[in-house]
Design brief:
The chain is an alpha+beta fold. The chain has one domain. The chain is built from 3 helices and 7 strands; from the N terminus they run E-E-H-E-E-E-E-H-E-H. The strands form 2 sheets. A 5-stranded antiparallel β-sheet has the order 3-7-6-5-4. A hairpin with a 3-residue loop joins strand 5 and strand 6. The radius of gyration is 14 Å and the shape is globular. The chain starts with 7 loop residues before the first strand and ends with a helix.
């Protein structure tokens, strides 16, 4: 759904914005597709273990305009942290992180 300020989110048990805009959501979808294609490995982490993902050395990816769902990048990796569904449904076990490792210059730019 689209929120009153243009946020993109879900209305489950209650309204939960995922991205600050639909453009941010589209950027996140495109980034996920690209990362899945080019990463050498993809690791999925669920539930409480998501809170233990080490983001030291990573910087936030501002293009996705993440609010509860965020993306982080380092020299050769991307991490997507999905908390929105867990918050919207009051279901912490729904938290998920995807770690995309082994991205080279092509994997980041597609050029």
């Amino acid at each position: 759904m689209i929120g009153p300020g243009g946020e993109f989110g879900i209305d489950a048990d209650h309204w939960t914005p995922l991205h600050a805009s639909t453009q941010g959501w589209v950027e996140a979808l495109a980034l996920a597709h690209h990362a899945r294609h080019w990463a050498r490995t993809v690791t999925r982490i669920k539930g409480n273990a998501v809170e233990e993902v080490d983001l030291d050395g990573f910087e936030l990816v501002p293009e996705v305009q993440g609010l509860t769902d965020t993306w982080w990048r380092s020299k050769d990796s991307l991490i997507a942290i999905y908390r929105g569904e867990a918050i919207g449904l009051a279901a912490p076990h729904c938290r998920e992180a995807h770690i995309y490792d082994g991205l080279d210059a092509w994997g980041f730019s597609g050029h």
